[in-house]
Each structure stands twice: as structure tokens, then as C-alpha cells.
Amino acid sequence: MRKLIECVPNFSEGRDMSIIKQITDQIEAVNGVKLLDVDPGAATNRTVVTFVGTPDEVIEAAFQAVRRASEIIDMRKHKGEHPRMGATDVCPLVPVANISMEETAEYARKLAKRIGEELQIPVYCYENASFLPERRNLANCRSGEYEGLPDKLKNPLWKPDFGPVEFNARSGATAVGARDFLVAFNVNLNTTSTRRANAIAYDVREKGRVKREGNPITGKIVRDENGNQVFIPGTLKAVKAIGWFIEEYGIAQISMNLTNIGITPVHIAFDEVCRKASERGIRVTGSELVGLIPLKAMIDAGKYFLAKQQRSLGVDNDELIKIAIKSLGLDELKPFNPKEKIIEYVLESSESKKKLIHLTAAGLANETASESPAPGGGSISAYVGALGVSLATMVANLSAHKRGWDERWEEFSQWAEKGQQIKDYLLYLVDEDTRAFNLIMEALDMPKKTEEEKENRTKAIEDASIYAIEVPFKVMQTALDSMEIIQAMAEIGNPNSVSDAGVGALCARSAIMGAYLNVKINAASVSNKEKVAVFLTDGEEVERKALELEAIIIRKVNETIASMSR
């Protein structure tokens, strides 16, 4: 549920790993971020670092890395093959999950401002973070490179977006931007021919192939009035591609960079290559993902292939990922481990043991029964609600696959998808309720010797107590939303599973009533009685609606069961 962004800074040092280690140490010292990759290049004398995390923490880690680079990299001594203009040459931010490009661009500008003001480094904002159209292209911002900066900074048209106008001889300048996520994706072919692989690559890549007169292979190249080659565009936007032979695997591949998976996602690129390969008598045998991929891209792929099979899309993420892996053939050349290839899973791997929802059913029961005060009634209410909507989702999926109901698969798939979303949110609230309790305990442990400490402690307790009301109230609202699905499945779902819908209704009602008890008991600790009154009044109304719906659903369940017994 949390927002995630990736940061890919490029540092002008690729030979002395002790220097790079000092920079990456700064990144790893920040909680909430995970270092994913460090890729040094000796010829370019440049290192590309990749890390991911929550936005504020990523910004902090990026700033500390840029700060350290400015202290230990001297651009006056730098030589390398790659274009560059600063110790930290570029620092792009990439939206990964639950965050828009617009928000990411604002974070990039926030980082750029801090670098410029606190480190006195000239900063240009590029791509989606740019303030001026001509600065959107990184090549324009970096024109003249480090050596051209003294003259460039004298030109009013190239006044930095942030930082001093003066030349910083040691650190140069930095470009900070926001760009789309790039996926490196290779498609495997049942051929060893690089020429045929290239032909398919030209068919699909956005740039396409060179236009020729007459024969498309040997004909004279067509040029425009300026003497530039004319290209016939390929079928896929935001895709770069080339064909090559991989000695290690003994096959040809289409090697693609998907520069905007919002325009051309992985599954569309794969299917289009399949189509173009088939037209040339070649078969796609699988694919290979280089680097990491966002969870959403894999979920979207799984849903895409299930829809092609006219199967319900309302299954859990693990099943969707499995479908995506098998449909794309991602495990043809070597095992594909989602825990190592999906960004969110890599980030959460170190936290998984701490989460209640990763316990077994027996483990959660045992943890609840222990002498620890958490998890308590709020977490269990959320879990009971998750079980309730899971039952309704099961009925929807069974109905989507019921013999004779084939034409209704999309109808039930939509209900199942909605159920999965609610289930996932309630599972998130299981742990969030326990975290809310822990925040109160942490606030109570704050020092209270001075007047300032007392004020800070009082405010922290109040804020934590309000949050401890907000979380169970969200459980109430979400569980009430689930009753729409439960009612629908009781009324139009597979009648053989109507009792499951009934049990789901009982769970949802219990979740709402249990969460309301937590709202009420936590309200006693809050001094802002006006705010508390709103929660109590709204909570009472949610509980009333839940009891009303429960009665309607159970009545329908019993009527259906009775009719089946006649």
C-alpha cells in the first residue's frame, strides 16, 4: 500500500570501489530504502547505483549520497568515455508503486533544491521534473559537459534551476529528473539467425526500419530533404529493440528496452513479438527479464493472459504472478524467483518475518493467545473481515467457472477482483492496527523531564491515539464495503456455495462490530472530543448498516438453502 520510488544516480567514479563504497554506505544508512544494484564501469569511469524505498527516505538517501560524492570525487581529475558534467552526473527518480509521475517530479524538484542550496552545486531539472521545455532532454542539460560549464553558466539561458550560478570546479553540476520505469526484456526465439531476429526487432520497435526503394532489403535507402534516412515506424511505442545471438543459450533473442511500460507493457510487447515472429515462420519459446520489475507490471500481465483464457481475474497476486511467469516463459532459460525479481518483494524481504499476515494460521492464533498485548481485537477484527470477503470472492470465482455460465465469466470476474482488493486492504490493516498500538507505546516511553519534552510527548500520545481510532474505523468501512460483494454472491452466485456467502456475512458483521469496540475504547484516550464524536457517530451508523445487511443476506441464504431441500 505504501508509495515507492526508485532512484538511479550516476556517479563519476567507476574504478576506485573504495570511493563508491563510501557513497553507497550513505544510502544503506537510511532506514526505509534498499540498495538494489551497484554497476561500475572502468572505461566510462562511472558507476550506476540503484536503490528503492519510500519517497522521503529515498530523497534523504539520495541527498546524502550526492553530498558524499561532492566530498570525495574531484571532477578536475576525472576522465571517462561517458558524457558527464558532475561528481553526481544525473539523479533520476522513477515511480514504482502507488505514486504518480507528477508526485515523483515534485520529489525530484525538492531534492534538486536541497542539493543546490545546501551543497552549492548548480542543478538542472530534466525530463518530467523540468521547468523549461528545452531542459526536458538530458542531452541538452549536459551539453558542453563538465569542461563547458564555466561558459555555460555565464549564459542567462542556462541559469541553473537551483543552486549557484558560479562554477563549482570540484563537483561540477548535477541533473535531477523524474522519468518512467525502464524494463530490459529479452524474447527468446527458436532460431540462431541474428538477421531474422533483427528483422522482427525492426518490425516491433518504435523507430522501425530504414525505408528503401523497391526491395525492402537491398533497395536504395530513402532520404528526406536534409539527407537524413527515412524510417518506417514499428508497431510498438516506447520500445527500443535489436536482434542478437546469445552464445550462452545457443539461441537468438529480441533484446528490448521498454522505456514506458505504461504505454507498452511487458505482456503487449511479448504478444506482438510472438505475432511478428509467427509471420516469419519463427516461434517464440520464452523470455528473459534483465534486472527488476514493478509488481504492477507482473499483475497486469497475469490478468491479461487470464482474460485471454476467459478466466476470472479475481485471484491473489501469487496466482497472477505464476500465470505471468508461465505465459511469458520467464523461467525457460533459468528459474524466475519473484522474491528476487519484483521490486516490492525485494524491498519487503527483510520485513516479512515481522508481519502478522505472514504467519501461519496457527502461528497467528498462537501469537494472539500469547502474553503480548498485540495483536489484539483490532487486528483480529481486520483478519475476520478479510476471511469474510475471501469467502465471497471464492463464490465469485466458482461462479465464473460454473459449467453453463460461460457467458457470465466477466461479470463474476469483476466481483472477484473487487473482493481481492478489499481482502488485500484488510490484510494490510491487520498489521497496521498492531503498528498503531505500538505507536502509542512508543509515545508513552518518550522522555518527560523538561517542559518541551512533556509537550512533545503529550502531542505524540494524542496523535498516536487518534491514529489508533482511524485504523479500526477503516476496518469498519472496508468490511461494510465487502458486504456489497457478499450480498451479490448470496443473490446471484453459484447456489451450491450460498452458505459460504452466509458465513462471509457473519464474518463481515463481526469484523465491523469488533472494530467498533476498538474505536470506542481508544476514543477514551483522546482529548479532542469533537474529533472523537465524529468517529463514534459515524461508527454507530456503519454498525447499524452492517446489522441490517447481515439480516438481509442471511435471510436470502436460508431461503436458497430451503429451496434446494425441496
Secondary structure elements and pairings:
Layout lengths: L3 E4 L2 E2 L5 H12 L4 E9 L4 E8 L1 H18 L15 E10 L3 H19 L3 E5 L10 H4 L7 H4 L21 E5 L4 E7 L4 H11 L4 E2 L20 E2 L6 E8 L4 E8 L7 H14 L4 E7 L4 H14 L8 H12 L9 H4 L1 H6 L12 H9 L7 H24 L8 H36 L6 H42 L5 H26 L5 H37 L1
Parallel strand pairs: 5-7, 6-7
Antiparallel strand pairs: 1-4, 1-5, 2-4, 2-5, 3-4, 8-12, 8-13, 9-10, 11-12
Helix pairs in contact: 1-2, 2-3, 6-7, 8-9, 13-14, 13-15, 13-16, 14-15, 15-16, 15-17, 16-17
Features:
single chain; 566 residues; alpha+beta; 7-stranded mixed β-sheet; 4-stranded antiparallel β-sheet; 17 helices; flat
Tell me what you see in this structure.
Helix content is 52%, strand content 14%. The protein has helices spanning 17-28, 55-72, 101-119, 138-141, 149-152, 194-204, 266-279, 295-308, 317-328, 338-341, 343-348, 361-369, 377-400, 409-444, 451-492, 498-523, 529-565, and strands at residues 4-7, 10-11, 33-41, 46-53, 88-97, 123-127, 174-178, 183-189, 209-210, 231-232, 239-246, 251-258, 284-290. Strands 1, 2, 3, 4, 5, 6 and 7 form a seven-stranded mixed beta sheet that branches. Strands 11-12-8-13 form a four-stranded antiparallel beta sheet. Strands 9-10 form a two-stranded antiparallel sheet. The radius of gyration is 29 Å and the shape is flat. The protein starts with a strand and ends with a helix. The relative contact order is 0.07.
Number of helices: 17
- The strand count comes to 13
What structural class should be given to the helix and strand makeup?
A: alpha+beta
- Average pLDDT, all residues: 94
Order of helices and strands: EEHEEHEHEHHEEHEEEEHEHHHHHHHHHH
- Please give the oligomerization state of what you see: single chain
Kindly report how far apart the N and C termini lie: 48 Å
Q: How does the major sheet shape up?
A: 7 strands, mixed
The unreliable regions are none
User: Shape from CA axes?
Assistant: flat
Provide the helix percentage: 40-55%
Rounded to an integer in angstroms, the radius of gyration calculated over CA atoms is: 29 Å
Fraction in beta strands: 5-15%
